[in-house]
Amino acid sequence: RRQATEYSTSSSDEEFESKPSLTHKAKRAIRKRRKLEKETKQLIKQEALKRLHKAQAVQRQLEELEERQRALEIFGVKLERELRGEADSGTKDENQILHEWFELVMEKNKLMRYESELLIIAQELELEDHQSRLEQKLREKMAIDGKSKGNVCSSPQGQTVP
């Protein structure tokens, strides 16, 4: 009997000792998960900041481009007047004025293509930002679902009870 009693006591002691280690493991897992969540949030913030800086750079480039296009418009109007003979062209001949006008048209087309590229980049940044917000919402919903599943326990009959 003593051996049986000692055996049952020692086995219950082992169970008792294993419970704190499980709690310790659970605490460690929680800490690890929180650390991972924190790192993920930091990465998300860094990516958002990078997108913001890139968007600001694109905006500045678009403003500079607009100023350059206005200057070309003004110069183009002057050249057209000279070609029509409405303005004094001075020593310039018609071929030289036409050459300048064609160069101006080519420069304007180049600026328009560049503007299109910048607008595409801006749209990509908007889409990346939207995707990031959707991913964040998904993570939040999955975390809520995970917590609600974690709160489910089993009854003695083996049935799941919320």
TrEMBL record:
Residues 45-162 form the BMERB domain. It holds the Pfam family bMERB_dom. It comes from the Eukaryota. PROSITE patterns: BMERB. Residues 1-31 are annotated as: Disordered. Residues 1-11 have a biased composition (Polar residues). SMART domains: DUF3585 (SM01203). Residues 22-31 have a biased composition (Basic residues). This is MICLK protein. It comes from Acrocephalus arundinaceus (Great reed-warbler).
